[in-house]
Design goal:
8 helices, about 0% strand, globular
Length: about 210
Amino acid sequence: MDILAKVSIVFWRFHFYPAVIAALLLTLLFPFLFGVENASIMQSAEIYERFFPLIGLILFLPLYLPDGSEETTSLIKTKRFAYVNILFLRFIQIMLALFLLTCGCLLIFKQSNAAIAFGRFLFGGLANTLFMGGLFAFGFAITAQPVAGLILPLGYYVASLFTGDKYLKIFYLFTLNDQDATSKLVLFVSGIVLVLVSFMLAKRRT
């Protein structure tokens, strides 16, 4: 248990909390910047889906960030704790923070008297962000470059904005107004698969 706590605390203190703070500040700001007060459910869904996935993506940026540090490298070399287990611990922290951030964002909508379907919006927001985070993790695991890793989720986001569901089909990002639960489930599961594949790819480099 000591090593689990140590790995988690080191990740939080030295790498993760700045991303959490940045995402939290943007979450607090964007509903007011884009005017969600008294928004209809269609307006709420449009604003939420177009901006929250980008904010949530920030939480995934530190996933592989500590791997160049001396502490992590030493721990991996000693074989006292498997590298994949370290990645799982980081991923759990990211998902917990994402869940709380998503709930907080939706509470801001409710406090602003914006119409939302809480459960549907919650799962939709988690699915969208997890898929984009999975694309980043996969891209980073292949290239070992954070900027290159960001090309995949940002390219996917832009494709969703400008092509609609014509080419992306079931992977289209903005489907809350269509109440398409299948699409969100596909994004959620695909995001998890991409993250797990990235773990396997990253393990090969250690």
